[in-house]
Amino acid sequence: MSDAAPRLKSLVEQLLGAPLSVRVRAWDGSQAGPPGAPTLVVRNRRAVRRLLWKPGELGLARAWVAGDLDIEGDLYAALDMLAGFVWERGEDARSLAQALRDPEVRAAVRGLFVLAGPPLPPAPPREEVRRPRRRLHTKHSDKRAISHHYDVGNDFYELVLGPSMVYSCAYWPAPESDGGTLETAQRDKLELVSRKLALKPGLRLLDVGCGWGSMAIHAAREHGASVVGITLSHEQAAYARKRVADEGLTDRVEIRVQDYRDVTDGPYDAISSIGMAEHVGSQKYLEYAENLLQLLKPGGRLLNHQIARRPQRDESTYDIDEFIDAYVFPDGELAPIGTTVTQLERAGFEVRDVESIREHYALTLRRWVANLEADWPRAVQLTSPGRARVWRLYMAASALAFERNRIGVNQVLAVKTPESGRSGLPLRSRTWN
User: Fold this and answer.
1) pTM for the full model?
2) Residue 377, SS3?
3) Are the C-beta atoms of 57 and 83 separated by less than 8 Å?
4) Rounded to an integer, what distance in angstroms lies between the CA atom of residue 22 and that of residue 191?
5) Nearest C-alpha neighbor of 352 from the set 263, 275, 247, 425
6) DSSP reduced 3-state for 69
7) Sign (positive/negative) of CA torsion 90, 91, 94, 95?
């Protein structure tokens, strides 16, 4: 008798107290749920065991990465439905402990254990970070975390990011994104940063978290700046150095494998930190800001481009996202934009401009997902089936999070304003020169 899907759907709805809006297809071929809706494919009983042993986001992520779960149909629509059903914890959501006080919920859990088969916890997928608890954001732990995320293979990143090799949100000309290519939008972002920093020939730029060298090359080639780019990824550094040499810019661009805390050759006229500060961590953020301030000359500018989360009523309850921490950015932390601005000011910066470009990141992520899906067999070959699935889930879910204003991204322009009070910025806001 093929009835696993209707049983599973009924038990999950009974457990969580809400109708499941996606369709379910189980390992026995049975289906249940709204016709025409995106389909959650439960390939085996192991997927159910993963959710029972690790309820919530991490259990779902493990099942997805291992290939025990899949989605057929509109990926974004399915993730949007599941986010509202499982991942979003609103004021009315019941915690598991509270829910288990309900006899019907306990009965649902027992039913799921029967449906799941032998109650042994499956091993996590090999793509999951395995590490003992340790002090966060030491130089050693940060290097390991960066290596996990960025040393996946330059060929894989070329497939996802495209020719620009810029791993941060592009700057699009129109909300519908029909006005240009990903490469053009990424160039426009690099140019926006360059104009905010007022780069020109002879100025020294420090690019913190330089990635594959795109900002450093743009600043040197288009604005004549002398650039030092730093990264903790050896693969990124090797790739960036080759690009610099191919561009004939070795006299103006130096790429180092170096922690920002070890840079001592200031002062610099300007610093760009694009998509790097998310790795710093709340306990180290003031130190990060103070270090960058010390590396700038008086009147020097910092452009800090950083993802932000929404503030919580009680910030002490903030937890790092389990899926992101285990599979994408180990030890990464997001802070509200207000916290970031406060920390920069505490360090001694004068914050002069904050520009939200949240919608731009959603458009960028959808392009990256399209690139990944268009060459899926090669992406799997370059990494692993699990790693490719991590990236597809991470980027698609992130696109939705930016679209729904669950997270944002901001460019903060700050100045090391001298005692004279002359910031060197124009009087009119957003008149960059």
Assistant:
1) 0.89
2) helix
3) no
4) 43
5) 425
6) strand
7) positive
Q: Is the pLDDT of residue 23 over 90?
A: yes
Q: What angle do CA 364, 333, 354 make, to 5 degrees?
A: 60
What's the start-to-end Cα distance of the chain, in Å?
A: 72
Cα–Cα distance measured from residue 303 to residue 285, given in angstroms and rounded to the nearest whole number? 15
- d(CA 426, CA 303) in angstroms, rounded, equals 16
Q: How many residues does the chain have?
A: 433
Judged by DSSP in three states, 398 sits in: helix
Tokens at 241, concatenated:
């150095």
pLDDT in the model for residue 229:
98
Phi, psi of 321 (to 5 degrees): -55, 125
Residue 307, beta-bridge partner list: 409
Are 171 and 357 in contact, with CB atoms under 8 Å apart? yes
The CA–CA distances, whole Å, from 366 to 14, 75, 375 equal 34, 11, 15
**Residue 193: is it exposed, middle or buried by C-beta count within 10 angstroms (0-12/13-18/19+)?**
buried
Alpha carbon distance 193, 188 (integer Å): 9
The closest of 198, 200, 219 to 208, measured between CA atoms, is 219
Mean pLDDT on 52-76: 90
Instruction: State the alpha helices, DSSP H only, in 197-272.
Output: 214-223, 234-246
Residues with Cβ within 8 Å of 218's Cβ and at least 6 positions away in sequence, in order, are 187, 190, 191, 194
